[in-house]
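Sample intake sheet
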Amino acid sequence: MAGAVPGGTGLLGTGPLALCAREPHVPAERLVAEMVPPPRFDSVRFDTYNPDPNQPSQIAAVKALSGFAGGLGGAHASGAGKRRWFSRAPKPEAGPRGIYLDGGYGVGKTHLLASLWHATPAEPALKAFGTFVELTNLVGALGFQQTVRTLSGHRLLCIDEFELDDPGDTVLVSSLLGKLVEQGVALAATSNTLPGKLGEGRFAAVDFLREIQGLSAHFRPLRIDGEDYRHRGLPEAPPPYSDEQVTKAAYATPGASLDDFPGLLDHLARVHPSRYGALTEGVTAVCLTDVMPVPDQSTALRLVVLADRLYDREIPVLASGVPFDRLFGEEMLAGGYRKKYFRAISRLTALARDAKGLVSQ
C-alpha cells in the first residue's frame, strides 16, 4: 500500500491511515438512525437550489416539490409549518403516493430530494432518506417484515439513486413499497431512468414487467433537464499527480488515508457496501496511488457505491495513475450501468478538484 501505515491514526507524525486496514461492522439500528440526508445536504433547502435559467424544468421541479411537501402537512418551501401527523396511518390518497425525479446526473436531483425531506413537517424519526442500495441493505439487515414495521409509521421515504440492478431487487422493492404505500407512507425518489424503464439493459426486465409496472404506479414522474452543474462554468479536473506527491500530501494532511488503488478494490470486495460509509468515517481526504481502469463490472459497481459515499461526505480524493474519466472502459460506458458510471466519474472529478489544495506547489 504505497507508504500507508495500516495502524496509523491519520495525525501528523503518525502517518496516514489505510482504508484497507478497516473492517467496519455496522449494527442494524445504526443503519436506521443514519437514514437522513448525508452531510453534504444537511443545510440544503429549496431556496438554496440554483436552477439553470435556461432549463425551465428545474424551476418547475422546485414548485412541484414545494407543493408536494405542502400536501404532507402544510410545509412551506423553507421547511417551516405546522406538524400534522397521526398516531395511526392515514388512508392512502387516490393516485400515486410518490413523486419521481428523473434526469441526468448533476442536475441537482439529490439537492431537491434532501430539500423535500427537510421541508416535510415531521420529526426526523418519522422521515427516512437513503440511497436505493442503503434501502436494500436495510432489508437485508432487519428482514422484510421488520423493515415494513420500522418504516410504516413514517410520513415520507426518500430514495436516492433508484436503480434496479437485478430481478431480486425488483421483486423486493416492489413488495416493500407496496406495503408502505398501503400504510400511507409518501414516497419520493431520484433516478436517471424513468420508472417504467427500470432494469432495462441490466436483466430480462420483460420477465418482471408486472413488478416494474407496479413500482411505476406508485410515482408521478417529474423530469428535470440540464447539464451537470458540477462542470457548469468550472475548470477541468486537475490531472493525476505522481505517487510521490500523493504520498507526501497524505502524510501532511491530518486524518488522510493512503492506499494503492488495486489493493483498495480488492478490499471493497470483502466489505459489504452498506459499510462503505463507516469505512470512511473520520477520514478527511482519500489519497490513492496507481489508479487504473477497473477490471470488471462487479468491481466497478462497488467503486460506484464508494464514490457516492465519499461525495456525500465531501471527502476530497487525491490520486495518481489514470484520470478518473478513464476508470471505466468503453464497453462499460455503453452498457446498462452507464449512468451509474458517468455519475461516479462526475462525482470523483468534483472531489479531485476539492483535493487540489492538498498538494504543495
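Comment: The CA atoms of residues 180 and 240 lie 46 Å apart. The longest strand covers residues 285-291.
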